[in-house]
Write a structure and sequence with these properties.
elongated, 0% strand
């Protein structure tokens, strides 16, 4: 029991410090790829000089709103960390509903900005940008997922496995 409590406390502290130290996805991207996100986008995209000013203005607007959505995701993770030890059906359902709602809003956000980017740089380049955004977002989600335990993971310590499974 004492070991389980210590593991839970360590998880909550690490999840809280993770959320505090990574308030912006940009820091994770820089850690993963060695560059700031804007530099990655600039390197990857092919934007004609005549459209660069309009593209970067729209991109900065997009990033501001995307970061706000990222803060919401962190809030959901913090809720999970805070409730992990006492997770029941009601709390788990509420957290999962918040996660689905966030994913839906993120998808609608991307769809709206895809349309805006298409008007500025064309469908091919806008698709390239969304593909890059999806790649970065999936890497961030995987990184976060690897930092938090699965529901019930700590319960496994309560099970005494047969010698052949140890």
């Amino acid at each position: 029991m004492k070991k389980s409590v210590l593991i839970i406390l360590a998880f909550i502290c690490s999840a809280a410090s993770f959320a505090q130290s990574n308030k912006e996805d940009v820091a994770m991207i820089q850690a993963m790829f060695g560059k700031e996100k804007k530099a990655l986008v600039n390197e990857y995209m092919t934007i004609p000089d005549a459209k660069k000013d309009a593209f970067w203005k729209l991109y900065d607007e997009y990033e501001d709103k995307r970061k706000a959505l990222g803060q919401e995701r962190i809030s959901i993770i913090e809720g999970y960390a805070n409730d992990y030890a006492s997770l029941d059906d009601k709390k788990a359902s509420a957290l999962t509903a918040k996660k689905f709602s966030w994913v839906d809003r993120y998808t609608k956000f991307q769809q709206a900005y895809y349309t805006k980017f298409s008007a500025v740089i064309g469908g091919l380049q806008a698709s390239k940008l969304i593909q890059l955004e999806d790649y970065l977002e999936n890497n961030i989600r995987l990184y976060i997922q690897e930092q938090i335990p699965f529901i019930g993971e700590l319960d496994k310590t309560k099970v005494d496995l047969p010698a052949s499974n140890k």
